[in-house]
Amino acid sequence: MLAGFSSGAIALCIAEIFISPHPPSLLDCIAEFAVRTLSYGGLSYCYFHFVNLGQSSIRVRIYSDLADNPLGLEIETLKQAYNESTLVVSRLQRLTSSGDIIERNGIYFVGKYRLVVVARILFFAKQLILGKKSEFNSK
User: Do 33 and 16 form a contact (C-beta atoms < 8 A)?
Assistant: First the structure.
């Protein structure tokens, strides 16, 4: 992540110096560079958090569980609480209780379409930014 950010920042500086047309005034030139740099920094900040959303939520929940248990928790307790099947079950419970999905005879269906729209927007943004369907795929 840091290498990508640094490479982009270097490319921005090179483009700013050699490619971008420069306004006649030095003050305008500085202002344009500041706007581009702040825009790059803001977009980089958003991208970093976009990529780390999934991992962060689990880390925060683990930290919260540990904070709620002053005597600490054993690794087996944490593994049981945060294994993949447990996470899927807890997410399904949250989605069914909110009505976003509906369960009938062990089969799940879309209830409310609001999260489908959000998911499609995020999927599109990932494809646009990463050039692939997932950051975990090498292709």
Answer: yes
- The model carries a pTM of 0.42
CB atoms within 10 A of CB 115: 14
Q: How far apart are CA 78 and CA 82, in angstroms?
A: 6
Residue 24 one-letter amino acid? P
16-70 pLDDT tens trace: 888 878 778 888 888 888 999 999 999 998 888 777 776 567 777 888 889 999 8
| Residue 17 token pair | 């110096």
Nearest to 103 by CA among 112, 88, 92: 92
Q: Report the alpha-carbon distance of residue 79 to residue 89 in Å, rounded.
A: 15
Q: Are 37 and 12 in contact (CB under 8 A)?
A: yes
Nearest CA to 38 out of 56, 12, 18 is that of 12
Using the predicted structure, report yes or no on whether residue 138 has a pLDDT greater than 80.
Answer: no
- Dihedrals phi, psi of 71, to nearest 5 degrees: -85, -5
Domain borders along the chain are 1-51, 83-139
The neighbour count for residue 57, using CB atoms within 10 Å, is 10
